[in-house]
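task queued by scheduler; priority normal; single chain, no ligands, no partner chains; default sampling; output format set to structure tokens
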Amino acid sequence: MTKTETVTTEDGVRLWAQRSGRGATPLVLCHGGPGLWDMFDEVAALLGDLATVIRWDQRGCGRSGPCDGPWTVERFVADLDAVRRHFGLDRTALLGHSWGAQLALHHALAHPDRVGTLVYVSGTGIGPDTDWHGAYKENQSARLGERPERLARWRELTDTPGRGRAQEREWAVLHWSAEFPDADRSTEHAERMADPWFGINTACNKQLNAAARKVCGTPGLYAACEALDVPALIVDGARDIRPRSAVDSLERALPQVTRVVLPEAGHLPWVEDPRGFREAVAAGLGLG
């Protein structure tokens, strides 16, 4: 049974949320971005017999109500905790993807007593952006360049000021196509991410990324991760264009961590290897 609900935060922002699945373990999913929306349809279906899956759109994004922020890590951690409270969960497993992996980690650091297991999917670790961002941009151009016309159009749209809604969606599909290692199906996968299309909250993306960058690489973050008393699972796709070595910093810091690398998968590992992804998450939740 799938049920859609509205979560109201303490500052009055209305968040879209949805509960599905029939498993006994509660599992809250945190989507990537920032500035995007929940695209976890396939993940919810894949894990629905293992867990009761709760999805939500972050503030000012997707199906959640409009707002002007604030776009801070602390505010988003509080929103995630509002989702947990709304569904009456004392403790929950958290699965975060990409930016959502960072969000789930920061929630676990702030509220370790409220997190049963942390599943950290396709994140970029806790080191500074300089550890990985340059290689990511090079890998992105190389992946897009496997179809030269795609790279040319992406660059054209990137340099187009004031893109309209249709152009913004076209740019996003081209941009996201680099996340998939199979060039023959990459556009198909990226089109699925953009359907339905809600538009990117660029203010959220820019400000929240900047706020997160200030924290990464700091001694305080390393120390907090070293002291985190929560079981953690790191799941990587080996063919992610973000260097997986970026996540080594987090793996070294966490005292209770298992890491699974899916060799044929990219940034959304459930797409290329759904069976391997399901098995890894099931084991991480103690259900395998």
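post-processing summary
- The mean pLDDT is 97.
- The radius of gyration is 18 Å.
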